Amino acid sequence: QVLFVESGGGLVQPGGSLRLSCAASGFTFGSYVLRWYRQAPGKERELVASISRTGELINYADSVKGRFTISRDNTKGTVYLQMNSLKPEDTAVYYCNTYPSLRPWGQGTQVTISS
Predict the structure, then answer these.
(1) Backbone angles phi, psi at 58, to 5 degrees
(2) How far apart are CA 4 and CA 7, in angstroms?
(3) Other C-beta atoms within 10 Å of 9: how many?
């Protein structure tokens, strides 16, 4: 069965860094585009970053461009999100999924940016 397990979130001060990981299984990992999404309280889920099957094509939301870096390890079935220069508006639950998305979604990992 499809399984996404996100980890690495936490509480950090503005300007800090976090590295999120998402271990995926139950499907052919290397055959899919992988994406990170986030959902802040009271808001819709938004796309943060996307990486192609081989990692050659990467896209970011304008709000995180230059601060976040997505990467993947197809041998480990894991996608990463390095987040630097974090801002309070980055506070959200972060999820990974494929494109097109697979179900069920994981539980996500909470990222809170606060002083």
Answers:
(1) -135, 140
(2) 10
(3) 19
Angstrom distance (rounded) from CA 115 to CA 113: 7
Angstrom distance (rounded) from CA 31 to CA 85 = 32
The pair of structure tokens assigned to 69 is 């870096």
Query: Which pair of structure tokens corresponds to residue 22?
Result: 């998402």
Q: Which structure tokens are listed for 73?
A: 């390890």
The one-digit pLDDT tens for each residue of the chain (115 residues) are 999 999 999 999 999 999 999 999 999 999 999 999 999 999 999 999 999 999 999 999 999 999 999 999 999 999 999 999 999 999 999 999 999 999 999 999 999 999 9
Residue found under tokens 């994406």: 35
Nearest to 26 by CA among 102, 94, 96: 102
Which pLDDT value is given to residue 23? 98
CA distance 59 to 55: 10
Counting every residue, how long is the chain? 115
Report how far apart, in Å, the C-alpha atoms of 24 and of each of 19, 87, 94 are: 16, 27, 14
